[in-house]
Each structure stands twice: as C-alpha cells, then as structure tokens.
Specification:
By secondary structure, the chain is an alpha/beta fold. Helices cover about 30% and strands about 25% of the residues.
C-alpha cells in the first residue's frame, strides 16, 4: 500500500480518516490490540464506562480539532464541563493549580508559602538551574517544591528526578509573588489557568467510544491483533509477530519505538538513542464507592499513598458511580492487592529525560528522510494530550494530501 499506519490510537485514526475523506484509500492501519483507541480505550466496569488509560477528556479550546471529531460523534452526544480539579496538600483539599489557590490554605500555611515564593530564585533574578529538583525550587519556592511538586513527580514519573530535563517545565504558570499575594488578600485565583479549563465528555459512553467510531469509519483498512516486531528501512517493510510482512511507500508510526525488537538499516548511534528513551507504566484501579466532592479529579502528592491521582467518575460520567485511581507500576502495593478491576498500561507517559530532545531530533529527522514519520505521544515520545495529538495528525495528513 502507499501508506502504512502503525497504531490505531488517536494519531493513527486521525491520519487514516483524513486520508479517506480526501479520497485516498491506499492505506492500511495495523493495531496490536483487538480494538482501537490506544490509551483512550474504555471498558464497561460495574455498569458504566471505565477509561483504562486514566483521565482522558476532550479540551474545548481546539475548535478545529473538535469540529473534525464531531463528524464521528456529534456535539450533542457530549456534556461540557468546567474543570474542577483539586490537590490534597498538608491534609487540606484545595483547588488546582496550587500557586493560584494558596489562599484556600490555613493562614499560617499561606504565610509560609508566600514567604518562600517571595525568595524563589526566579523572583530574585538568580540564574536558572539546569537540573530538575533545583529548577523546581528556583521556580516555585521551597514550600510548593517540598509539599507538592517533588513528591508528586516522584510518584508519577521517577524517584530519581534529576534524570529529567527542565525544558518541558516552561509551560508551568509563572509564579508572580504579587499575584499570589493578591489572591490571598482577595480570596480568589489569579494567574494562568491550566489546560482543559473546559472539556467535553460523552453523555452515554466512555471516551473510547469516539475512537471506536473513527475505526468503524475506516473498517476495511484496519487489521487488529497485529503486533509489530521489525521495521526494515532499506525496503520500507514492517514484520508482525505472526510473520506477516507489509510494505509501503510511506510508514507513519504512532507506536513506542521500544516496541521494535528489530530495526534494519538504521545507524547504531540512533538505535542506541532509542534504548535510552524512558517511560512510565500506570495501573488504573476501580473503586465502587462515591466520593463526597464535586470535583472531577484529585492530585495526591503524599508519599504514603501509592496512587498519585483519583478520577471521580460519577462527577463527569452520567449514571455512574465510584472512582478510579492511577498508580505508577513501581509503587503498586502487592500486599494490599484487592479484587477490584485493574488495568496496567505498559506505555503511559514518555519521560522527559535530559537527552530526549537530542535523541528524538536525530531519530525523527533521519527517519523522515526515508519516508518513515513518527507521530503522536509515542511516535514523537512527547506527553501530548489527545486533542494535541489529533491536531498534529490532522496537519500531517493535510501535508500528505497536498503533496500528492
């Protein structure tokens, strides 16, 4: 075929559907699972949807993305929510982000936080550090660093945080001492709001329903239960575990690069870089009892708790009950194992390690010259949300279509 797409998650399904709608049908999608959706798949658990990959929502802000996706699942099938996310810190639940909601803490804690922000390096004009932990102190001050950012990231990503770079942290809100002080005086949030300030979630289904419909729209062009093991750059051929071979003019890969057990025709230096890429695995677990809170999700930096986040299902999924937790695979307490439904996501979050930008630039540039394109969270090894992934996939498909 002309185009071979590896992976039927949001990235692969978007490219495939854009091609089909443009009249390009010489493509095939290979998916290792029995159903489409990738990390955004949903299952029925206890009579309601359970999103196996954790919390996935459709951000309201990308109108072109949503216009495209609503062709498969119309807007009237979605509820729109104002984001209500919380953090439990120092035994008190406050709104997220922490730096905008210090005013909700006890007065003595507000004073401590304000003093630490006032003398944070970024507010004193000191030189920006290059290692992760020092950067957090420099940017946010010691109280936010020690009570929230450092323990939370240790739970989510890696105990050895200085393996992480600082290049990805620029997206954090600027902590202005003046704005933080003003929020405490006026008792309201100031500053930049986080992503998904408003979001959509299906009225009757889990988030995975959207991707099932997109897969159905290209049904003749998907093969399931096809786990890729080898890619040959010399012949642009992909081999799957059952021995089947697929050859294409252009290969678009949305799967983790670590999944290729054999790569033929790639320089050893670039292959060695792939081995240095890191990721975290996350287990989701369902609990049937309702929580007495109006929020949709809660962050837990407390190291004594194994999980780092709770998704309060009954606050965004109509006619459901219960909640689910997200726990890094390295923190799962086997002794406290329950009979609850659990799902392990081997590939959950790409880690932003120090060398990753250099590794991925070399890898993607070299591959692109050979008409192999990395796309999406795993093809680009970037922590993209689904709406960002769809946006990138739409733009790639448009370039492909224009070039023909």
């Amino acid at each position: 075929m002309k185009y071979l797409i590896l992976g039927a998650g949001p990235a692969g399904l978007t490219v495939a559907n854009k091609l089909k709608r443009a009249g390009k049908t010489d493509f095939l999608v290979l998916e290792r699972e029995a159903v489409a959706g990738g990390l955004c798949r949903s299952m029925d658990v206890d009579g309601a949807p359970f999103d196996i990959g954790g919390g996935h929502f459709l951000d309201v802000s990308r109108s072109e993305v949503n216009k495209f996706l609503f062709q498969f699942m119309p807007e009237e099938e979605w509820d729109k929510y104002d984001r209500d996310s919380r953090i439990v810190v120092n035994g008190k639940m406050i709104n997220h982000p922490i730096e905008a909601n210090i005013w909700q803490m006890k007065m003595e804690d507000q004073i401590k936080y304000l003093k630490s922000i006032a003398v944070a390096g970024c507010n004193l004009g000191t030189e920006k550090p290059q290692d992760f932990v020092a950067w957090v102190y420099w940017k946010l001050g010691s109280e936010i660093a020690e009570d929230y950012m450092i323990p939370y990231n240790q739970k989510l990503f890696n105990k050895e945080l200085n393996q992480l770079g600082t290049y990805w942290l620029e997206k954090l809100p600027n902590v202005s001492f003046e704005e933080t002080l003003l929020s405490c005086l006026e008792k309201k949030a100031y500053g930049t709001q986080p992503g998904h300030t408003q979001f959509y979630y299906p009225k009757k289904y889990g988030y995975g329903e959207l991707w099932l419909r997109m897969a159905e729209a290209i049904k003749p062009h998907i093969e399931y239960n096809k786990s890729v093991k080898c890619i040959d750059f010399k012949t642009k051929t992909v081999t799957v575990t059952d021995g089947s071979k697929y050859q294409a003019e252009v290969i678009i890969t949305t799967i983790p690069w670590m999944e290729f057990s054999e790569i033929i025709g790639m320089p050893d230096e670039i292959k060695a870089g792939i081995k240095e890429l890191k990721f975290s695995s996350i287990q989701t677990e369902y609990f049937p009892n309702n929580l007495n809170t109006p929020c949709q999700w809660i962050y837990y930096p407390d190291p004594a708790l194994s999980y780092h986040r709770i998704l309060v299902r009954h606050n965004f999924c109509p006619n459901s009950k219960g909640y689910w937790t997200e726990t890094n695979s390295q923190r799962i307490n086997m002794e406290a194992s329950s009979d609850n439904f659990k799902y392990m996501n081997q590939y959950a979050y790409p880690l932003n390690t120090i060398k990753k930008p250099e590794i991925m630039k070399k890898l993607l540039t070299w591959c692109k010259k050979r008409k192999v394109v990395g796309l999406g969270r795993w093809g680009e090894h970037q922590h993209y949300n689904s709406d960002v992934t769809v946006d990138l996939a739409m733009k790639l498909a448009e370039i492909i279509i224009e070039d023909e």
